[in-house]
Queue: 2 jobs
Job 1
Amino acid sequence: MTNWRHRHVIDLASFSLEDYREVLALADRFRETPSTGARRLPALQGHLITTLFFEPSTRTKSSFELAARRLSADVQSFTPTSSSLGKGESLLDTSLTYVAMGADVLVVRHKATNVAAQLAHDLEKAGENTGVLNAGDGLHSHPSQGLLDLYTLAKYFNQKKPEPEVLKGKTIAIVGDILHSRVARSNLWALTACGANVILCGPPSLLPEEFQDFVKEPPPGQVSDPVLNRGEISVTRKLSDALAPADAVMALRLQKERMRENLLSSLDRFHRDYGLTHECLKLCKRPIPVLHPGPVNRGVEISSQLLNDKSICLVEEQVRNGIPIRMALLYLIST
Ligand code: NCD
């Protein structure tokens, strides 16, 4: 029996602690249950999941598709370059075409903010009950990544019971290009909801001071915050200040394709000031894990040696956890 109330998953700002608890618990069950090949779970048999990715993706698209298959759903994948978009068909009409073919869930990624939210709204207006899962919209939100990062951290801190409460009182440092990162924004909602304190670290051009107030107000269109007590967010420019109290650190890709102009003097300089290495981790009070949502610019956000060090670097673990997290999301919005 679930208390799930989201027809779509667009943004983690609307998630309550109970929602996080439900997703993490279900993902943990899926992770521990063999569900490949002949042993795939029958939960979404007869369901059609359609992925519509208008932006490149390696991890998110394939793990949503794999997650759907592990639950026995049919999977259909839209490719913008060979579609009728080039003939002028709108995004809504393209989506309605897939709905007409029977899509139960549309998993959507787009470079513009709010596309998934608008699509969910338009589909409801058109009387369709297809669910929309946001797989990344502009700089705004990437809920499944925020959830898999949360799960990876909870699992690291408590292998047996990876619940949201495990994060309470922990300090998580997020370093690098915060401004252009929808992953950072989703992580801010998720981590603070669970009572973690977040230290954001980066140069002023990639981390405006105002980020410290990021979760103080619910986003436009949302009346209230479903979480009563959130952790704190602080901003620092110095990597040593972020690492010293941290229980975990997450690096973010320099998202050059989303930058308006060249906001950095050089990649070498960025690596010197904000790149994670074995050397700089000595500043931490204890050994801490390193996360990165990928794709990584090897040697820029994280040194090559650190990226290869599986005892500290959880990047592959994040990728693996993406599958059960997306199985949980597909299951919850489909049933
Ligand atoms: C992220 C994205 O697309 O927002 N990647 C991902 O989904 N794993 C982060 C990025 O592009 O840097």
Job 2
Amino acid sequence: MLPAFEWKGEYLLLLDQRLLPWEEKYLELKTLEEVAISIEKMMVRGAPAIGCVAAYGVVLAMKEGKGLEEAIARLSRTRPTAVNLFWALERMRRAAVNIEEAEKEAINIEREDYQANVKMGELGSELIPEAVNVLTHCNAGAIATSGYGTAVGVIRKAWEKGRVKRVYVDETRPYLQGARLTTWEFLKLGIPTTLITDNMAGFFISKGEIGAIVVGADRIAANGDVANKIGTFTLSVLAKEYDIPFFVAAPTSTLDLSISSGAEIPIEERSKDEVLYINGRNIAPLNVDVRHPAFDVSPAENITAIITEKGIAYPPYGESLRKIMEGR
Ligand code: MRU
């Protein structure tokens, strides 16, 4: 699998995810501003990958002679929902006493994230029922992380164990992370993959074709409410209605126990153009009003389990997530 990013010491090599699946092109990022723009413009995306790349952005800023706080402030303004960004910047704030220490910490953040992904794959794959089709939404794969993937990691491990027959991938309007990125990853992994549009999920679930849903997360509140890509909430309601297990896979860097519920999670509103245009062509009258919330919140009561690298949390999440964070 191609990595989303690779630290080269003097610069950060970054896969431009906007070009996938058409072109596999890497950019060389050398400055704080280039890294900030790469996150804003979604050349890199996915909560853990954003955190890792931001950490390297701090290192590049220090190499440019910029102040730590200036770097953290600029990177904090890029995207508001994924808490991994703020978690990584906080770690950098504590560790970056000089360039060497900053670089070490960014590398640690990346390594720990990779290990967390592999661990979640091992733990989570055991939850997948035998011989089912699994549905996923958005891209929570290797390129959304430092490698391997969260939801995709669970599915690929379950596939290796013979539990998964086929993966159904929501296209994930409007940014098409499912169609462009997740199908690209699953096909590279050799896993049978079916692409569906978001509004087909209910049809296949009602026909009994889906045995489990696995998604990633951008921020998880103390009560277990989960913010993830827009459309995830709808899937969680369908899962509850049809009694299908609904799993969330996320490293503990995605937990935000400082907020009590999903109502406090800031939801990014992105440009209306991402809804209005596909491949440079408008698909609706240009003078129509458009809204574009990029995330929604699935309530804790719709979630069967939250898979982290430190263990699996079950309801009531207020208690189980706290225990996981305290290492109990
Ligand atoms: O807007 P994006 O593409 O950054 O949103 C990504 C998601 O919502 C993912 O599901 C989430 O970050 C988990 S990635 C392992």
